[in-house]
Design goal:
Bound molecules: zinc ion
Distance between the termini: 33 Å
Protein name: Transcriptional regulator
Family: Belongs to the ROK (NagC/XylR) family.
Strand order of the largest sheet: 6-5-4-7-11
Structural class: alpha/beta
Strand content: 15-25%
Pfam family, one: ROK
CATH topology of the largest domain: Nucleotidyltransferase, domain 5
Largest sheet: 5 strands, mixed
CATH architecture of the largest domain: 2-Layer Sandwich
CATH class of the largest domain: Alpha Beta
């Protein structure tokens, strides 16, 4: 069996958490197969499965035909019995939804945000909307976790958003605590591009895949999933490609430095470069490009090429299987075309050969699905299952 993502070996073989871990690794199996794999007595296994069924963590998913005798029931982890609240805040958009532990989004709402918004403007709305969604779905009692994606670096220890350059009012703001108190569940904070990359990793359904997710909206960020895990880096800023400097360019960036790729190729930069022509907002840029206006489309293409130049280095270092590009600007066809052609030209030939580059297949939902997947990992972790079973 492929062991790249094995979760077993953390608890005792007999613990409920370990039974769930083995079920996740093996996929649907019969009681007998599970018993053989775990080396438990039949009585102990029945007891564990009773506890897990009572907590709605294990369910039967069908029958396995057998040669002679009765067909045996197949057991699997129940990923539909619990839900997570998932939210994503960017400089211009906020989304909030409810998803189950398969990553199926059951309710979703997206709103545009005013410039300069603060956590005090957004978090109460996010909490109210999530509670409404849970109530409408009749799933208040099933809430098990929550996740929030924001741009920039996150201090995972304190749950503080450290430095989103496109959202200055969110700098050094505690986000985990108010959400955890508001929803009475554990909250995971994640960088927006990491959440996108994880969503796309799940959609690819390839456990070994290394996925590079790129998000281009007001700012530019990237996230990496390696061997099924988001790679956050030593200080939580892995993938912050927006502030890599492009040589000989002096445009001032929102981070305070000059010549960053975000100052040239982000949505904010495109608004600035089209201001002379009456463009004021990112939706204005999108409208101009979507209606085929030549100058705006050429600028979007050039922006894609600049991001492609930066990504060529990243791709050469990581040698990923997939590059998935999302965000309001990232999903514009001229931008994506510029990014793709430059990346193919400039990355190492072998890393570029066969590299699958494309738009985020989950579209605007990629971050929410990624957060639901991360919530599932937290809820189904052996220690979390053992705590639940003991409670
Ligand atoms: Zn910068």
């Amino acid at each position: 069996m492929d062991d790249v993502n094995r979760r077993t070996g953390t608890g005792s073989a007999a613990s409920p958490g370990n039974v769930v871990a083995v079920l996740r690794d093996l996929g649907p199996v019969t009681r007998q197969q599970l018993q053989q794999h775990l080396g438990l007595s039949r009585a102990t296994l029945v007891e564990r499965l009773d506890v897990l069924a009572r907590h709605r963590l294990v369910t039967t998913v069908g029958l396995r035909a057998s040669s002679g005798g009765r067909p045996a029931q197949l057991l699997a982890v129940d990923r539909t019995s619990r839900v997570a609240v998932v939210g994503a805040v960017g400089a211009t958009l906020v989304s909030v939804g409810v998803a189950d532990l398969r990553g199926t989004v059951l309710a979703e709402r997206t709103e545009r945000l005013p410039p300069g918004h603060t956590p005090d403007d957004v978090l109460p709305w996010l909490l109210d909307t999530a509670r409404d969604q849970l109530r409408t779905l009749g799933r208040q009692g099933d809430l098990a976790a929550a996740g929030l994606a924001v741009p920039g670096q996150i201090d995972q220890r304190t749950g503080i958003s450290v430095m989103p350059p496109t959202m200055t009012a969110w700098r050094d703001q505690p986000l985990r605590t108010p959400l955890a108190e508001g929803l009475s569940v554990d909250v995971q904070l994640e960088n927006d591009a990491n959440a996108l990359a994880y969503g796309e990793y799940l959609a690819a359904d390839a456990p070994r895949a290394t996925v590079l997710g790129v998000s281009v909206g007001s700012g530019i960020g990237a996230g990496v999933v390696i061997g099924g895990r988001p790679h956050r880096g030593a200080t939580g800023c892995a993938g912050e490609i927006g502030h890599i400097r492009i040589e000989d360019r002096e445009e001032r960036c929102t981070c305070g430095r000059h010549g960053c790729v975000a100052a040239l190729a982000s949505g904010t930069a495109l608004v600035r470069r089209l201001r002379f022509d009456g463009v004021r907002t990112i939706p204005d840029v999108i409208r101009r490009v979507s209606t085929g206006e030549q100058f705006a489309s050429d600028l979007a293409h050039e922006a894609g090429r600049l991001v492609g130049t930066v990504l060529a280095t990243v791709v050469t270092i990581l040698n990923p299987d997939l590059v998935r590009v999302g965000g309001e600007i990232g999903s514009l066809p001229p931008f994506l075309a510029g990014l793709t052609s430059t990346l193919r030209e400039q990355a190492h030939e072998v890393a570029a050969r066969g590299l699958d580059i494309g738009p985020a297949v989950l579209g605007e939902r990629a971050q929410l699905v990624g957060l639901a997947g991360l919530a599932a990992e937290a809820v189904l972790a052996p220690a979390a299952v053992d705590r639940l079973a003991a409670g």
